[in-house]
Design a protein that fits this description.
The complex is a heterodimer. In chain A, helix 2 packs antiparallel against helix 3 and helix 7 packs antiparallel against helix 16. Chain A starts with 8 loop residues before the first helix and ends in an 11-residue tail after the last helix. Chain A has one domain: Amidase signature (AS) domain (Amidase signature (AS) enzymes, Alpha-Beta Complex), CATH 3.90.1300.10. The longest helix of chain A has 21 residues. In chain A, strands 1-3-2-4-6-5-10-11-9-7-8 form an 11-stranded mixed sheet, sandwiched between helices. Chain A is globular. In chain A, strand 7, helix 9 and strand 8 form a beta-alpha-beta unit. Chain A contains 16 helices and 11 strands. Chain A is α/β, with parallel strands linked by helices. Chain B has a domain of 41 residues: Histone, subunit A. A two-stranded antiparallel sheet of chain B has the order 1-2. Chain B is flat, with a radius of gyration of 23 Å. The relative contact order of chain B is 0.08. The model of chain B has no long low-confidence stretch (mean pLDDT 90). The chains are: A alpha/beta, B mainly alpha. Chains A and B meet through helix 10, helix 11, helix 12, helix 13 and helix 14 of A and helix 1 and helix 2 of B.
């Protein structure tokens, strides 16, 4: 097979089943590709060749014995370095966890292993998933394969860069405010943030627990459906996990044809939107209309408050979650301390990077005595209003269509001001506050050759419908078949 | 809404158990002042009759039957502890 490294799961699974390739050959191909390009991309924090080849060998043995486990058996899947794999490093791209080795698997890791996937690589990200560019990494920034002077997005930038560069076949990221969808848009991939509660968070390094969700990056919508099918489902070890029968997302893709009612929230096409991105999304809207979809303007009137609400709630939850890093039970421990409190304060000061410290400080402040009502409680109330905006829109439409990011991939070092960086997330954070499923799908390129993504936002737990709407577009366009020259 | 001028970086850093350098304190105070200024606009929203949302969906306490499950071995639980002795974690003296 030519271009093994850029084939989607569906093609590779067929080739594996037909014995045209073996899982070991496929894994050797991604290992060789990783070694050839990762020096330029810095998408991997670490990888374990022997372990991956052993997994691939076991997959080949299963298939030879007629015990193949389906589409993911033998497929290399990379994990963002915030998802635990037993016996492998788990750094969250932080000095704090530089020496940490996971004593257990995350639930999604167990599910991927059960599906036969070959777990390949620990993928770079912003430290503790806090950032929009993968520049806040103790391992140095990851780079966008489409333009090595630009960021791959963040926080799951390594997951996006690794897949776009053909060093793996699918990846997992985590999305707290856009950390899957924005890097998917920057790197020309499909990236799906599931409904809050659909995918277990057990074994995910916690950032903001009421917002975090794990989800897939994939080359095609169908591939995303395959990976989602493997990782979705109720888990007793995550008390926010949703009890529901998980549909066969891949099979359901075939049965859903539309036409759909699509809402265009006017607030997502406001000042600050790059004109080339706006034009590409307008063309996508015209496509859906040409397919018989009813497209109508809707309003999400509290959109302007999403960013502030998000940065209060996310930092408050982060300051609480990251209190566990005390230098005692695990993580970095300062060498010299006068007493216990001094040990905490020094270990944390030495272990955390600047953005993590900034967010802990902000989160601590908004939760502190005298400020709680004015900031945190008020933000929780505005969150209710933001969620109601979406639910009101869904009385009229099946899904919403917006740009994923107001700008294409920016230059490394371009956004040194924290507030400027936070503003990159304005089209993605409302989805997390409302707990909705959303995905980014490629919808064009800028004149400079950078990928553009559009965001489709669905109704709670209707991932099947969301994927079908995205696939209808994907089938009529070839953006997803282009690859960076690297 | 509270004024950003009330933002006392020393006090907050102490609450957060973060030993910041003077340079970090100056930088964070300025940057977070900008962020807090931006956040001021939330004060314009009428939330007088709105219930707060801790989660996007209602989340209830989950009860599990009290059945022993296999857990980590002591060695596995302690494998990442930076200072330990005889299967115990070492901490600075906390009582005189």
């Amino acid at each position: 097979m030519a271009d093994l490294i850029y084939q989607p799961i569906t093609q590779l699974a067929a080739a594996l089943d037909a014995k045209q390739i073996s899982a070991v050959e496929l894994t050797q191909a991604v290992i060789a590709r990783t070694k050839a390009v990762n020096g330029r991309l810095n998408a991997f924090n670490s990888f374990d060749e022997a372990d991956a080849l052993a997994q691939a060998g076991a997959s080949d043995a299963r298939r030879a014995a007629g015990q193949g486990r389906g589409a993911l058996d033998g497929i290399p899947v990379g994990l963002k370095d915030v998802i635990a794999v037993q016996g492998q490093p788990l750094t969250a791209s932080s000095r704090m966890l530089a020496k940490f080795v996971s004593p257990y698997d995350a639930t999604v890791t167990q599910q991927l292993k059960r599906a036969g996937a070959v777990l390949w690589g620990r993928l770079n990200c912003d430290e503790f998933a806090m950032g929009s560019s993968t520049e806040n990494s103790a391992f140095g920034p990851a780079v966008n394969p489409w333009d090595l002077t630009r960021v791959p997005g963040g926080s799951s930038g390594g997951s996006a860069a690794a897949l776009a560069a053909g060093t793996t076949v699918a990846t997992l990221g985590s999305d707290t405010g856009g950390s899957i969808r924005q890097p998917a848009a920057f790197c020309g991939l499909v990236g799906l943030k599931p409904t809050y509660g659909l995918v277990s968070r057990f074994g995910l390094v916690a950032f903001a627990s009421s917002l975090d969700q794990i989800g897939p990056f994939a080359r095609t919508v169908e591939d995303a459906a395959i990976v989602l099918g493997a990782i979705a489902g109720h888990d007793e070890r995550d008390s926010t996990s949703y009890r529901a029968t998980i549909p066969n997302y891949r099979a359901e893709l075939g049965g859903r044809r539309g036409p759909w009612k699509l809402g265009i929230p006017k607030e997502y096409f406001a000042a600050g939107l790059d004109p080339e991105i706006g034009a590409a999304v307008e063309r996508a809207i015209a496509f859906y209309r040409s397919q018989g979809c009813e497209v109508k303007p809707v309003s999400l009137p509290h959109t302007q408050y999403c960013l502030d609400t998000y940065y209060i709630i996310a930092t408050a939850e982060a300051s609480s979650n990251l209190a566990r890093y005390d230098g005692i039970r695990y993580g970095h421990r300062a060498a010299q301390a006068s007493d216990l409190v001094d040990l905490y304060a020094r270990s944390r000061a030495e272990g955390f990077g600047a953005e993590v410290k900034r967010r802990i400080i902000l989160g601590t402040y908004v939760l502190s005595s005298g400020y709680y009502d004015a900031y945190y409680l008020r933000a929780q109330k505005v969150r209710t209003l933001i969620r109601e905006d979406f639910l009101r829109a869904y009385q009229e439409v099946d899904a919403l269509l917006t740009p994923t990011s107001p700008i294409p991939a920016f230059k490394i070092g371009e956004k040194s001001d924290p507030l400027a960086m936070y503003l990159c997330d304005i089209y993605t954070i409302g989805v997390n506050l409302a707990g909705l499923p959303a995905l980014s799908v490629p919808c064009g390129f800028t004149s400079g050759g950078l990928p553009i993504g559009m965001q489709l936002i669905g109704q709670p737990f209707n991932e099947s419908g969301l994927l079908a709407i995205a696939q209808a577009y994907e089938r009529a366009h070839d953006w997803h078949t282009r690859h960076p020259s690297l | 809404m509270s004024q950003p001028t009330e933002f006392n970086i020393d006090h907050v850093a102490q609450l957060a158990r973060l030993a910041l350098t003077p340079t970090e304190k100056a930088q964070f105070a300025q940057q977070l002042g900008d962020v807090l200024h931006h956040i001021e606009q939330l004060g314009k929203v009428d939330v007088s009759s709105v219930e707060p949302a801790a989660h996007a969906f209602a989340v209830y306490n989950v009860w599990a039957d009290d059945i022993p499950q296999p857990g980590l071995t002591v060695d596995a639980a302690l494998q990442n502890a930076p200072a330990q002795r005889d299967h115990m974690i070492v901490v600075p003296k906390v009582v005189e």
